[in-house]
C-alpha cells in the first residue's frame, strides 16, 4: 500500500458528498470488522455537514453499529453551545442528532458559555483526548480524519503565516485573532492530525483551486497549512472538478 497523496475528482459537489459518504460507510465497516471501536475526526466548514447529511441519507448507514464509533472534531469555533455556527452543532443537525449512541461517544470541544476561558478549554479537550490515548499517545489513534480546506489553505483552525501550524508540543491550541470569524477558536495541532491512520480532505468549489494546486505543487505548510498534513496510511483529497482545476493532471484519479 502506498501513502502517496491521492486526488479523486468528482463532477460536482453532490456526487462528491455521495461518494465520500459511501466510502466512509464501507471503510467503517472494514475497520469495525477488526477493531472494537473506531475513532473519527469530523470537520466543519462547507463540506463537513454536507458529507454527514449524505451519510444519513444513505440506507447503507444502518449497517453500521454507530455505538462503536467515537466522534471528535478537528477544530471548533469559540461560540456558545448550540450556536448554528459551531462545527459540532452543524454535525448534530446534519446527522449525529439522529443517532442513538451513548453521550460518551461524542467529544465536542468546550463551548464559550461553559464557564471556561479559552486556554482552559484547550486543556480540557487535551485531557479528554488523553483519556482515550493508546500506544503511549496523548490522544486516540484516529482511524479517519476528515478535513475541509479553506480558500487560503487552512485546515482545522491552523491558518497560513502563523506559528500555530508549527506547534508540536501540545495536542490542542487556543487560536486568537483568526482571519476567519469567529476570531477565537480551538484546534487540534499538526502532529495529532498527522497521527491519523487516514486523512480524508473534502473540498469543493473554484475558490479552493489555488490552495489545493499550491499544496500539491510543493508549497510550504507555512504558506498553505494543508501542505503539512498527511495520514499515516492514506491521504486522499476528495474534490469536485472546480476545486481540481489547478491540480497537475498526473496526480488526478477521476472517480467517474
Ligand atoms: O472555519 C472553518 O473552516 C474550514 C474550511 O471551511 P470551508 O467552509 O472553507 O470549507 C473548516 O475545515 C473548519 O473546520 C472550520 O472551522
Automatic annotation (TrEMBL):
Q: What are this entry's molecular-function GO terms? A: 6-phosphogluconolactonase activity
State the UniProt keywords alphabetically.
Hydrolase
**CDD domains from the entry?**
6PGL (cd01400)
Catalytic function, reaction form: 6-phospho-D-glucono-1,5-lactone + H2O = 6-phospho-D-gluconate + H(+)
The record's EC number reads: 3.1.1.31
Which top EC class is named for this enzyme in its record?
A: hydrolase
**Pfam families referenced in this protein's UniProt entry, alphabetically:** Glucosamine_iso
GO terms for biological process? carbohydrate metabolic process; pentose-phosphate shunt
Boundaries of every Glucosamine/galactosamine-6-phosphate isomerase domain copy: 12-235
Q: In which pathway does it act?
A: Carbohydrate degradation; pentose phosphate pathway; D-ribulose 5-phosphate from D-glucose 6-phosphate (oxidative stage): step 2/3
State the PANTHER family in the record: 6-PHOSPHOGLUCONOLACTONASE (PTHR11054)
Spell out the family assignment given in the record's similarity comment. Belongs to the glucosamine/galactosamine-6-phosphate isomerase family. 6-phosphogluconolactonase subfamily.
- Cited function: Hydrolysis of 6-phosphogluconolactone to 6-phosphogluconate.
What name appears for this protein in its UniProt entry?
Answer: 6-phosphogluconolactonase
What gene does this protein come from?
pgl
Amino acid at each position: 500500500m502506498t501513502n502517496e497523496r491521492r486526488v479523486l475528482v468528482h463532477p460536482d459537489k453532490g456526487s462528491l458528498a455521495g461518494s465520500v459518504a459511501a466510502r466512509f460507510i464501507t471503510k467503517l465497516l472494514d475497520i469495525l470488522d477488526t477493531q472494537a471501536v473506531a475513532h473519527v475526526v469530523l470537520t466543519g466548514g462547507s463540506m463537513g455537514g454536507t458529507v454527514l447529511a449524505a451519510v444519513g441519507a444513505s440506507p447503507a448507514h444502518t449497517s453500521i453499529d454507530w455505538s462503536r464509533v467515537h466522534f471528535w472534531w478537528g477544530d471548533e469555533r469559540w461560540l456558545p453551545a448550540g450556536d448554528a455556527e459551531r462545527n459540532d452543532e452543524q454535525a448534530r443537525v446534519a446527522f449525529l442528532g439522529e443517532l442513538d449512541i451513548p453521550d460518551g461517544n461524542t467529544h465536542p470541544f468546550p463551548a464559550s458559555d461553559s464557564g471556561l476561558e479559552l486556554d482552559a478549554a484547550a486543556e480540557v479537550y487535551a485531557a479528554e483526548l488523553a483519556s482515550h490515548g493508546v500506544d503511549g499517545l496523548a490522544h486516540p489513534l484516529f482511524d479517519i480524519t476528515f478535513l475541509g480546506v479553506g480558500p487560503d489553505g487552512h485546515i482545522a483552525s491552523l491558518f497560513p503565516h502563523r506559528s500555530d501550524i508549527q506547534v508540536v508540543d501540545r495536542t490542542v491550541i487556543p487560536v486568537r485573532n483568526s482571519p476567519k470569524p469567529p476570531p477565537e477558536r480551538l484546534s487540534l495541532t499538526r502532529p495529532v492530525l498527522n497521527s491519523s491512520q487516514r486523512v480524508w480532505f473534502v473540498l469543493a468549489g473554484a475558490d479552493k483551486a489555488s490552495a489545493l494546486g499550491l499544496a500539491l505543487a510543493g508549497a510550504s505548510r507555512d504558506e498553505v497549512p494543508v501542505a503539512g498534513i498527511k495520514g499515516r496510511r492514506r491521504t486522499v483529497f476528495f474534490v469536485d472538478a472546480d476545486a481540481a482545476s489547478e491540480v497537475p493532471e498526473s496526480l488526478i484519479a477521476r472517480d467517474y
